[in-house]
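Reading group handout, session on sequence-to-structure problems. Before we discuss, look at one worked example. The prompt was deliberately terse, the way you'd type it at a terminal:

> structure Agmatinase

The input record follows.
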Amino acid sequence: MFAHAKGNKNSKWKMIGIPSEVGSLSNIKFYSNGPKAIRDASYKVFDTLLGDIDLEDIEDLGDIDIEDIRDINYLYNYIYNRLKEIYDKNKKYIFLGGDHSITYPILKLIRENWNNYKLLYFDAHPDMHPDPYPNYESYIYYLIKEEYLNPEDIIMVGISNLSFEEKNILKDWNIKYYNFYEVWDNINDISREISNILDNKNLYISIDIDVFENGCGHWLEGMGIKVYHYLKILKELKNVHLIGFDLTELFSSNICNNLAVKIILETISIFNYYK
Ligand SMILES: [Mn+2]
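And the output record:
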């Protein structure tokens, strides 16, 4: 159990682990270790800095039991159906990955429950490479193709490595993104601009931990944004309705597990305090 989740069915925040790695093309796995690593590390992290958390208002619903599913389409449907059974629009969700393809069934469910929402996407990669099927590097492309996501509703932050195809698709579909250099160069203007775009909107936040320069992701990138940039962007938001957020692709180590817990708790505290 997550140390800070002392709530019950009435709690506003619901945490769910999705320990899946079938959507990853990497030979090195351990993505499925993420939820357990985060829960174990939560006992070493205490209060928050940027707002307050109420332990009674956070409930840990445990993990979705992925069993030994190997068929990727079956897996996406399976995750979607398990989430659909428990999803309540009046609650705010924290999803623990897993590789980033867990966000594929999550956003299908979100789309069916929310006519309009914006996606704030923190990732070193756009995950829009036109592979033949949805996986951790292509599922955003598929969500758009399948009309679960409008290109104009996406803001990507911290991009540092993208394929030739992705760069063209981002341009052709006019998707807003800030690369890691722009974030470092101009965080004040960028955070204000994002705040203006998201004013009065429903929001889902997806975090691939490889967006940060700390080297905590599976697919390591030498260029990344700081956790400070992430928190600054969130703190600048005003009239936003948060639907939920996910944190994916953690490559477990003591410092990275601790970082993941901090990001989760500070995110909760910011939305408790400012919204
Ligand atoms: Mn990703």
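Points for discussion. First: The beta strands are 13-18, 58-63, 92-97, 118-122, 154-159, 176-179, 202-208, 241-248. Second: The chain has a mean pLDDT of 96.
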